[in-house]
Amino acid sequence: MEPGDQRVNAAEKVDQVINEPAAVMGPDLAGFDMLVEGLDHWAGSLAEWPPARRVAAEWEAVAPRLERARRELSRVLVVGVIGGTGTGKSTLVNALAGAEVTTAGDVVRPTTINPVVVAAVDVEMGWLPVAEMQARVVRSESPAVANIVLVDCPDPDTQADVPAQAGDSRPSAANRNRDLLEKVLPACDVLLLVSTAQKYRSWIVARELAAFAPGRPLLFVQTHASRDPDIREDWRQELERQGFMVPRIFRLDAVEAAARAAAGIEPAAGFRELLEAIDGELVGRAARRVRRTGALDLADWFMQQARLQLDPYREPAQALREGVARERTRLEGVLAQGVADRLRSGRSAWQRLVADEVIDRWQGGPFATFLHAVAAVGSLWHRMRPSGGLVGRLLAGQPPDVAAGRGGWQSVEELGLAAAEVEQSRSVLGGLAARAVIREPLVGRARLDAARLPVQVSAVVERTSGWLAAGIERLVSSRRSRLGSRLARTVFELLFSSLLVFVLVRAGWSFFYGNLWEGRPSSSVGFLQESLVWIVLWGLVLRWVINALIRIGLDRDISALVGELPQAGLVDPLLSDFADARDRVERYLGEADSLGGEAHRLALANTESGLGRLRRV
Fold first, then answer.
1. Crossing angle of the two packed helices 554-563 and 314-345, in degrees rounded to 10
2. 614 near 244, Cβ under 8 Å?
3. First to last CA, the chain
4. DSSP three-state, residue 571
5. For residue 452, which of 106, 274, 469, 595 sits 20 to 30 Å off, Cα-Cα?
6. Are 257 and 117 in contact (CB under 8 A)?
7. Can you tell me the distance from the alpha carbon of 456 to that of 362, in angstroms, rounded to the nearest whole number?
8. Cα separations (Å) of 72 from 45, 287, 294, 489, 585?
9. Around Cβ 366, how many Cβ atoms within 10 Å?
10. Low pLDDT (below 70) residues in the chain
């Protein structure tokens, strides 16, 4: 087959792939699109947290590559040829181009400075930033580059002309070719690494390669085969130690391959295998697969790196969670003790509250009338002595009073929760949050903030008053149902009425029998006065019995009510910033695990390519 015929067939293959229905790759693309959208949303979801900001900054560099991969599935691949000085990299490019398109040097003199882009005559390259790359474009009719764009990259180990900057982690940071490499390699879809027996352990080249390898499939070629020993197995082990997956390494003589290509002679076995790999792995449908696989590898690599960066903060975040729970429990214990003490000290208020409820339900009897009269007199006294404290006001049926400013904390301190206790808890949580690099504005300061204090006090008082009101109503209802029953009312009415009956019978006997029948002088006025005193005293005794019944089991009921305090979340507003920050960080970490697992699953599902890549962990 003539080279021109190969060119036509390859072009027809590209057209076939371009015109194929999108359904061929529908499931993969759908999953990939959802993954990219999820990553984009997740990466910017917690900008207030410094570790998340670093992840977002890295995402800003990765996202455009993934977006290009989604848009440019059908264009030809750009293959960047990278290697150390004197490895025969430019000679290999000449062999692939079928002519001398770039200057080749010997084993010691650095040659490639400005990149050379080799493309077929009919390939439109408006999408390639040639000017920014400072590249020279050469057109070629070689079948090897008919359906790829080849870039001869600057040598990464050229001697430095400028001093390295402090803190730069790259070994070639001061290399004058580094800037050009950083402009060229981002435009490449595939990297072809060239090395020799003298250069394959070059850590400078390996580090430069690793910096740009994520998301870019790799080809490995050993040149100088005619004069160097076969180092492919040693090189494979070296690359694997550096974190690369190496399914195959090609071995050829670049000088011989270039000479044969220029003369139109059939290529030798080593170079022919490389041409077949390019045609089989980088052309047509394979090109789409390579771009898709590279994009998934890049997403997988990004999530691996992000999770590695976030892993040191998982234990501090868990410690913060435990700290919030611990300090919440401590403050709830302080508050529960204070509420219990104030409820127990308000026995008279409990008695009055339940008694009033019972009296309201007792109507029509003499004892009920007596109780209403006593309650009316007592209400005048209690109006002159307003109840103090939140518990007292609630027991008296009065609304809670929340003052403005820091003075409003008095409403909380009346419950037994001092500001110093809250600030101690916030100080402890502040230290735990600092370990997880959680700072303002995610969390506030340890001291109570005057600007936020009214809101916090209002929330605590509102929750406490609502919880207490419901609990008090429940206890009052329980006791009211016992004392306000028909049986209890009947018993007390009979006991009170028995004295009234005795007084009336005694007065009637004295008047009708003693005065009218026997003629003795009447003493009913004095008797009635004494009887009235005894009736009042007897009524007060019965009312005391009611109060005694109210007090029975009151401590048990108060303890049961206070035991429900942790479920009410009364102190949550005081620690809400720490709890919210903890939840947001844990949700962020959880989403990282979920997206990382999905990216890894999609990447593993697209591993049919025979190209090398960075190893997945």
1. 160
2. yes
3. 45
4. coil
5. 469
6. no
7. 43
8. 28, 11, 13, 89, 35
9. 15
10. 1-29, 105-112, 157-176, 350-351, 378-408, 484, 506-528, 607-609, 616-617
3-state secondary structure of 530: helix
* CA-based nearest residue to 608, from 243, 290, 284: 290
Q: What whole-number distance in Å separates Cα of residue 178 and Cα of residue 157?
A: 9
| Helices (runs of H) and strands (runs of E) counted in the chain | 23, 9
Helices 366-384 + 486-508 axis angle, to 10: 110
Tokens 């139109």 identify what position? 264
**Strand order through the sheet with 190-195:** 136-140, 116-120, 148-152, 77-83, 190-195, 218-222, 249-251
> How crowded is residue 203: how many other Cβ atoms within 10 Å of its Cβ?
12
Query: In angstroms, rounded to a whole number, what is the distance separating the alpha carbons of residues 35 and 12?
Result: 33
Question: On the CB side of 603, how many CA atoms lie within 13 Å of its CA?
Answer: 27
CA-based torsion, 603, 605, 610, 615: positive or negative: positive
Whole-angstrom CA distances from 20 to 197, 284, 611 are: 44, 11, 24
What tokens were used for 588? 């962020």
Q: Is the pTM of this model over 0.85?
A: no
- Determine the 3-state secondary structure of 137 from DSSP: strand
Q: What are the tens digits of pLDDT across the range 74-105?
A: 788 999 999 888 888 899 999 999 998 988 76
Query: 245 is written with which tokens?
Result: 């997956």
DSSP result, 49-88: SHHHHHHHHHHHHHHHHHHHHHH-TTSPEEEEEEE-TTSS
Asked if residues 119 and 150 have their Cβ atoms less than 8 Å apart, the reply is: yes
Neighbours of 37 (CB within 10 A): 10
Question: What whole-number distance in Å separates Cα of residue 562 and Cα of residue 19?
Answer: 73
Instruction: Supply angle C-alpha 11, 15, 18, rounded to 5.
Output: 140
